[in-house]
Design goal:
288 residues
Length: 288
């Protein structure tokens, strides 16, 4: 019994980290699908998505992006689904706010709430003008967890939700860049390199059209070196992300993510898109 419980918890931890990274990749919203009118992208979009691992659905969620001038606000809600939900009821809510500065994002706050089997934890990152995040945890972290990253490793980083709201440089290429990420516990780099231009259709025809495919290399910096998932991704070079243009190509957002995890191949697909209009602008996420 104890061994079975340990295996379930270990599987849950692997799945949690895999979903956290996949959700981070998918935190931006594609708005170039045929079902989205061009004029609607100025206010933003609301999307539904699914995450499959090993061919089985493991999570589903909703994402909302709002762009107003130089300000952005991103919200992401994710919950376990399918078979995993029977033994691991988990829900995550992430919100990121900040401003666009040229071809870079400057986050001002990142809030994260997780509920796993009725245990709730909260995390808040607030950034000063120099890009240094201040951390707040409820309940507080242990001293060992707090010391897993040093201040110089956190400065100038992005939170995982704002990571792939990608403003492009003059050449219009959303790939060929390094993104430093810090989620409050883990510090890692995402190295994107251009692969090719694809025409794709995501699950349930959520997005159909042209997208830029990038190769992604995940390099751990602190707080995650011992994770088996991290070692798997370090040793492999088969993580891919498909980015679609919005706002006349000024920004790119993920429409699909494929990656390898210790428990199978993971695919995040956008399955439904709609503009933030009269009926959706003030709406919150549906309950998971």
């Amino acid at each position: 019994m104890d061994r079975a419980m340990h295996e379930r918890k270990r599987t849950g931890r692997n799945l949690a980290l895999a979903l956290a990274l996949a959700a981070g990749f998918g935190a931006g919203l594609p708005a170039a699908a045929k079902t989205i009118e061009p004029e609607a992208t100025a206010e933003g979009v609301l999307a539904d998505y699914t995450v499959y691992i090993g061919g089985l659905i493991v999570a589903e969620g909703s994402m909302k992006a709002s762009l107003e001038g130089e300000s952005y606000r991103l919200q992401n809600r994710l919950g376990s689904a399918g078979l995993p939900k029977k033994f691991w009821d988990a829900r995550w809510t992430m919100t990121s706010e900040g401003r666009v500065d040229g071809d870079k994002l400057r986050p001002s706050s990142f809030a994260f709430t997780s509920t796993e089997n009725d245990e709730t934890k909260k995390r808040l990152l607030t950034y000063n003008d120099a890009g240094m995040p201040a951390l707040s945890f409820d309940p507080p972290l242990s001293p060992e967890e707090r010391e897993s990253t040093l201040p110089f490793e956190r400065k100038g980083t992005l939170d995982p939700v704002s990571t792939f709201l990608v403003p492009v440089a003059n050449d219009g290429n959303p790939c060929n860049r390094k993104l430093p990420v810090f989620d409050g516990k883990r510090r890692y780099d995402l190295d994107l390199t251009f692969d090719r231009i694809d025409t794709i259709t995501t699950r349930n025809n959520g997005y159909s059209g042209e997208a830029v495919r990038c190769k992604v290399r995940i390099t751990p910096r602190a707080g995650m070196e011992k994770a088996k998932l991290t070692k798997t991704m370090q040793q492999r070079d088969d993580t891919r992300i498909w980015l679609a243009p919005v706002d006349s190509g000024k920004f790119y957002f993920p429409v699909r993510v494929q990656m390898r995890t210790p428990i199978g191949g993971a695919v995040l697909d956008v399955v439904r898109l709609r503009p933030l209009g009269v009926n959706t602008a003030a709406a919150d996420f549906p309950s998971n």
